[in-house]
Fold:
Amino acid sequence: MAITQWQPLRELSPIRKQLDRLFHDMTSSDHDSYSIDEIKNEARQLVECGAVDDQQPIWVLCEFIAPEECLSVEEEIEKNHYLLRAHIADLITKKEGEEN
Structure:
């Protein structure tokens, strides 16, 4: 089956299972809030496995998070001065002065 750009990732079950495992820790019920570092790490993993492109907007990450968790993730992203319409690359790229 060829993957087309418009095809929702949710329909691609083998890939979806892998992505669900990537976000399992971040969306587990024992989390009250999410750190920006957790979000960046998960976004980086999604880019590395090819699930998302780093030129897609940050809001695309919510497709991989349970709907009830999206608001707290969005709030953390915005609290750290990122726009949801900015590219994922802006979120995962280290800036000068950040730790390695």
Summary: The chain has four helices and no strands. The radius of gyration is 13 Å.
